[in-house]
Amino acid sequence: MDRWYWTASTYLPGEIAKYSCNCKRLYDGDNKTGYEDGHLTVTSIRLLWKHSSNNKSLGLSLSIVVLVEEESGGFMSSGGKIVLHLTSTPAEQPSGPFGTSPHSHIKLGLKHSDLSTCTVQLRAAVSDKVWESGSFRNMVLSDVSSSNNRNKPARAGILGIERAIEAKQQATSQSISVAFEDLKQLMTQAKAMVKLSHSIAARLKDQDTEASADETTQFRSCLLSLGIDDPVTREAVGSTSQYHKKLAEEISQTLETSVREVGGVMLLSEVYCRINRARGLHLVSPEDVANACSIMTSSRFPLNLYSFESGVQVLQLTTLDTKTLVSETRELLERECGGRDGGPDGKWKGVSAGELGRMAGLPLMLAKERLLLCEKNGAALRDESSEGLQFFPNYFDQLST
Question: What are the strands, taking DSSP E only, across 261-312?
Fold first, then answer.
């Protein structure tokens, strides 16, 4: 209600009356006020309300109206309401009978017979925006600046929503610009940090320190996990074949230590995740990783690509042959199953792929492939029952004939 102001009952120069009707009551938001049983006039630039006992009128500039809605009354009601969603009060507006209002909309209580016509005339006047013409620009009821209009958004309405979206987009754009500036600075500093980490790790390896071997290894691993300081890119190399060869060298150098730590074998899917994590923003596709790893089998790399019969592909140490892998898995089976004589109760216990994975720190898929490889080479036997698939060490080859 703070948008209403006292004004003379006469029209301003150039102002045209559009529609007049009786107004049952004025509302501040959804709250009733003491202004009732007056006469309402819609002009080309204002909304005027006057009571017969008062010489002055209440005025409201249509320039601050952002949306006009019609609110029908109840079944037993004799009228309805027009809801006007408003922006902030113009700084140059004359004083009025009301103080500051927390509401961003007002309501006009009208009879049913006047409701539709008055709504149409109000919408037309708000749409025409006559107050923006030259003859009204210098009047006290001229439109406020765009900055003032956005100080207090409307409760609802298309214009209020559009303004909120525009402000949010501007804030987002500024945030993105600042973020990319910070990212550029971070990338510039990251290369120097990675080089420094490599230097520290090399010194720890070459010099004797008071730190234990485990602590040195862990610290070195943390430093190297910062990433690759100068990852190879297709644009820098040019040729696709050369790019895959350079990428193969990068993968081999970066992941050799990690592959050794997990037992000498790593799933190709994990290789893809680890190398992309090390490369940071310079991501590579699964196809490029697979092609680069396939080159390792025909070149002198510490790692090479191996495919199981099931089609599962892994990256493993070149020094790790099938015989060694089968022997290590056989030892795990014997230790868990209790040897040739079984456990303390004389019974053998089978080992599933999940159990082997927990014992050896392997993914479930890789653990199963190792058991199947042992079976294929005669080092293990399977027992498939209602309890699932389990494997036992093969002692038949040790029986005397």
Answer: 265-267, 303-307
As a whole number of angstroms, the distance between CA 85 and CA 108 comes to 12
From its phi and psi, is residue 338 left (phi > 0), alpha (psi between -120 and 50) or beta? Answer: left
pTM score:
0.41
Contacts of 2 (CB under 8 A, 6+ apart): 89, 96, 98, 99, 100, 101
3-state secondary structure of 384: strand
Q: Which two tokens stand for residue 238?
A: 């040019």
Distance CA 114, CA 117 (A): 6
Q: How many CA atoms lie within 13 A of 68 on its CB side?
A: 21
Domains defined for the chain, CATH in brackets: 5-152 (2.30.29.30), 227-316 (1.10.10.10), 322-398 (1.10.10.10)
Token pair belonging to 212: 């234990």
Q: How far is CA 32 from CA 1, 60, 108, in A?
A: 11, 18, 10
Alpha helix (H) residue ranges in 151-239: 158-206, 213-224, 234-237
**pLDDT tens-digit series, residues 135-193:** 565 554 443 333 344 344 444 467 667 767 777 777 676 666 666 665 566 666 566 66
Q: Using the 8-state DSSP alphabet, how is residue 255 labeled? A: H
CA distance 105 to 112: 21
Distance, C-alpha 189 to centroid of its chain: 26
